[in-house]
Amino acid sequence: MDLHLGLDGPGDLATRIHRQLLDAILDGRLRPGERLPPTRELARRLDVSRNTVSVAYERLTAEGLLVARVGSGTFVGAAPVGSPRAVRDGDAARPRPLWDVPPGPRTVEPETPLYDFGVGTPDPELFPLPVWRRLLTAEWRAATIRTAGYRDAAGHHGLREAVARSIGRSRSVRATAADVLVTHGAQQALDLVGRVLIDPGDVVAVEDPGYPPARHLFHSLGARVVSVPVDREGLDVNALPGGARLVYVTPSHQFPLGTPMSLARRAALLDWAGRHDAVIVEDDYDSEFRFSDRPLDPLHSLDRAGRVVYVGTFSKTLLPLLRVGFLIAPASLRPALHAVKRLTDWHGDPVTQAALARFIDSGELPRHVRKATRTYAARHELITEALAGDLAEWLDPVPSTAGLHVCAVLRPDAPADIPAVVTEARRLGVAVEDLASYCHETPRPGIVLGYGAIPTDRVPAGLARLTRSFRAVTKR
Ligand SMILES: Cc1ncc(COP(=O)(O)O)c(C=O)c1O
């Protein structure tokens, strides 16, 4: 047993050992059925007489918390009653005000709705588990044979090469392995960029509606976060605040509206960043799934002035639980980004990164993306048809031809209470998201429908129930 017992505190030695064991049993560090060390062994470890330990054990046995079994030892009783020792609230350590948030709800797994149009998750059924398992096992074997030790903070070299090649082909982003820094998803990429660029009080411009985790992250780093409206061409460059140090955008597939940023806007944004000495963070989080037309070049490929940090992730193409993403930054920012990565995290998980490198190099990634795109395209089409059919009475779809979600705004001539529709849909087993939850300053009535999590054959029934929800709410 590796339980630490201190001998400080009031009372004789037996009382102190009794108190320590009692606490450990009541707060669950010692679990029912667990065997305690023999009195002789514990006495030697604590440098006390065996009799002292026996007295403590006997007291706990008399209290029903320990059970002595002849010939096999002393065990924690079956179901000790009690609760963890309470710490007086006012005495406990507190975080700084920014993080002094009320405790969240207990982490109970939410009930999975029957028709889950939740946003942000790819289909776990599509994940190529047998291939991944094989690659991961091989890499674990290799990693434990090679010298174990700390690695390059920029990430596994093979993965950086594979990422550079892969996005060169699929997204026309020109980069070499030296340009790529591997991160724990897009979120860590945003954190690193923020740490390197933002001083407290600096202005960071984000899209509205937009991606709340990015807004919250920049705020947590001390930035003054300013919302900039988005229209059908993307972020309104004319509305950018003059002193912005950083502009965060999702130009390939605006989150959550789904529209691509027009070429004219891309040029205007790059020009603006050059004139205002600002950095653009281009979050290209799910554009690998494309259903028609050629995508526009990323801002990174159009950038001639070293103003764009390109951020990518494998959370959508594979799974969010892998926690692998990357950033490609101008050479001028690279030493700082590497230094921050080393300081805050070092190199992430090199085994997962090595397996992913092989997954990309062997052609599995493009194969998987092609297959998944066919599945997602079918779901996208079913939703688009319903939006043009039954749901057209209330909703106007926002055109989008990529990614894992679509957005539809409420028609001005067909008012419906969207929160009430979302609640009614939930009652019917359908999860959809309220567009307002992504709006900061300018609330827009509408809904966002993800199709990563819902099996294709459930989409029509789910949409039929959503239509029923609209009908029920408008009739009230
Ligand atoms: C706009 C946007 N960026 C990035 C991500 C992915 O983040 P991560 O790579 O940290 O999982 C998401 C996921 O929902 C997203 O919606």
UniProtKB/TrEMBL annotation:
<keyword id="KW-0804">Transcription</keyword>
<dbReference type="GO" id="GO:0030170">
    <property type="term" value="F:pyridoxal phosphate binding"/>
</dbReference>
<dbReference type="InterPro" id="IPR051446">
    <property type="entry name" value="HTH_trans_reg/aminotransferase"/>
</dbReference>
<dbReference type="InterPro" id="IPR015424">
    <property type="entry name" value="PyrdxlP-dep_Trfase"/>
</dbReference>
<keyword id="KW-0663">Pyridoxal phosphate</keyword>
<dbReference type="GO" id="GO:0008483">
    <property type="term" value="F:transaminase activity"/>
</dbReference>
<keyword id="KW-0805">Transcription regulation</keyword>
<dbReference type="GO" id="GO:0003677">
    <property type="term" value="F:DNA binding"/>
</dbReference>
<keyword id="KW-0238">DNA-binding</keyword>
<dbReference type="Pfam" id="PF00392">
    <property type="entry name" value="GntR"/>
</dbReference>
<feature type="region of interest" description="Disordered">
    <location>
        <begin position="86"/>
        <end position="107"/>
    </location>
</feature>
<dbReference type="GO" id="GO:0003700">
    <property type="term" value="F:DNA-binding transcription factor activity"/>
</dbReference>
<dbReference type="InterPro" id="IPR004839">
    <property type="entry name" value="Aminotransferase_I/II_large"/>
</dbReference>
<keyword id="KW-0808">Transferase</keyword>
<feature type="domain" description="HTH gntR-type">
    <location>
        <begin position="11"/>
        <end position="79"/>
    </location>
</feature>
<dbReference type="InterPro" id="IPR000524">
    <property type="entry name" value="Tscrpt_reg_HTH_GntR"/>
</dbReference>
<dbReference type="InterPro" id="IPR036388">
    <property type="entry name" value="WH-like_DNA-bd_sf"/>
</dbReference>
<dbReference type="InterPro" id="IPR036390">
    <property type="entry name" value="WH_DNA-bd_sf"/>
</dbReference>
<comment type="similarity">
    <text>In the C-terminal section; belongs to the class-I pyridoxal-phosphate-dependent aminotransferase family.</text>
</comment>
<dbReference type="Pfam" id="PF00155">
    <property type="entry name" value="Aminotran_1_2"/>
</dbReference>
<keyword id="KW-0032">Aminotransferase</keyword>
<dbReference type="InterPro" id="IPR015421">
    <property type="entry name" value="PyrdxlP-dep_Trfase_major"/>
</dbReference>
<protein>
    <submittedName>
        <fullName>PLP-dependent aminotransferase family protein</fullName>
    </submittedName>
</protein>
